[in-house]
C-alpha cells in the first residue's frame, strides 16, 4: 500500500505544479484552490508512504514522478520545447527512479 500512496502522491504533485502554473501567481481562484487541495493531498499521501518506506526512497520517487510528470505536461499541454538533451535528462531520472525502487524494501 505505501507504494500506491507514493505513486498517487507523485501524480498529485504533477497536478498541483500544473495548476499552480495556471493560477498565474495565485491570481486565478479555481486553479489556486485546486493547487492547494492537491498539494495538501500529495503531502498527506507522501507522509503515509513514509510510515514504512525509507525517507530517501520515498522523497526521491515522489520528486522524480513530479519532475518527469511536470516535464511531460509542459511538453504535451503547454507546448514547451522538446530536445534530445531534455529527453535524455528525463530518461536518466526515470532510470534513477527504477534503481531506487529495485533497491528498496517494501
What does this structure look like?
Helix 1 (2-22) crosses helix 3 (55-78) and helix 3 (55-78) packs antiparallel against helix 4. The protein contains four helices and no strands. It is flat. It is mainly α and 106 residues long. It has one domain (2-102). The longest helix has 24 residues, at 55-78.
Write a brief structural summary.
The chain has four helices and no strands.
Shape: flat
- Number of spatially distinct domains: 1
Stretches where pLDDT is under 50 for at least 5 consecutive residues are none
Bin the strand percentage.
Answer: under 5%
Topology as a string of helices (H) and strands (E): HHHH
Instruction: Give a quick account of the main beta sheet: strands, pairing sense, barrel closure.
Output: none
Radius of gyration: 15 Å
Number of strand elements: 0
Mean pLDDT: 94
Please count the helical segments. 4
Distance between the termini: 9 Å
Q: Structural class, from secondary structure content?
A: mainly alpha
Overall helicity: over 70%
Write the layout of secondary structure elements.
Layout: H1 2-22, H2 29-49, H3 55-78, H4 84-102
What attributes does this structure have?
106 residues, mainly alpha
